[in-house]
Structure to design on (184 residues):
């Protein structure tokens, strides 16, 4: 797993997403080029409400936590993707703020190489109930609001992931929370 701050070698959050070369740090395989893994470009967002609470999605049926985020659609810029994913997964409209950087994570169990750009965002208006898709409901997605960033980080650090292969994604999102803490 690699973490990158914004640089000329990685996506600028104000530009359309460009293909990146894959790194060679997949510890679960011998393929340094990751040709067997399909790249997935995504955004992840550390979302704060008006009083500083942090949104975390508890994937209850599989025992891991994630922050709002998901795939970038064709032709979509990163900030638009982040805002759309926050609305879908938290039920909240938001203002996308600081860029946190990029984290690349091999997820062999899904034959995926996740390339995620992270942001900090703030809820605009009132919190609403998310309208999860069927597959998200089947996985037990539930939004939880933690009192602050440290409480969210502590909960995730102490969580024992139940689903094989999902620890990489929980760690990946935990790293975005830590990047947000360092930036604030």
């Amino acid at each position: 797993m690699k973490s990158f701050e914004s640089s000329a070698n990685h996506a600028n959050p104000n530009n359309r997403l460009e293909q990146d070369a894959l790194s060679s740090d997949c510890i679960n395989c011998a393929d340094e080029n990751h040709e067997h893994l399909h790249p997935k470009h995504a955004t992840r967002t550390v979302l704060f409400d008006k009083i500083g609470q942090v949104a975390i999605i508890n994937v209850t049926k599989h025992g891991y936590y994630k922050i709002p985020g998901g795939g970038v659609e064709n032709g979509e810029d990163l900030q638009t993707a982040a805002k759309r994913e926050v609305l879908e997964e938290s039920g909240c409209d938001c203002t996308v703020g600081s860029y946190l950087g990029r984290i690349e994570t091999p997820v062999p169990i899904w034959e995926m190489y996740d390339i995620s750009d992270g942001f900090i965002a703030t809820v605009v208006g009132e919190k609403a109930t998310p309208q999860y898709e069927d597959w998200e409901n089947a996985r037990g997605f539930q939004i939880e609001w933690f009192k602050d960033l440290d409480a969210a980080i502590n909960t995730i650090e102490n969580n024992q992931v139940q689903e094989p292969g999902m620890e990489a994604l929980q760690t990946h999102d935990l790293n975005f929370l830590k990047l947000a803490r360092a930036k604030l």
Notes: The chain has one domain: 2-183.
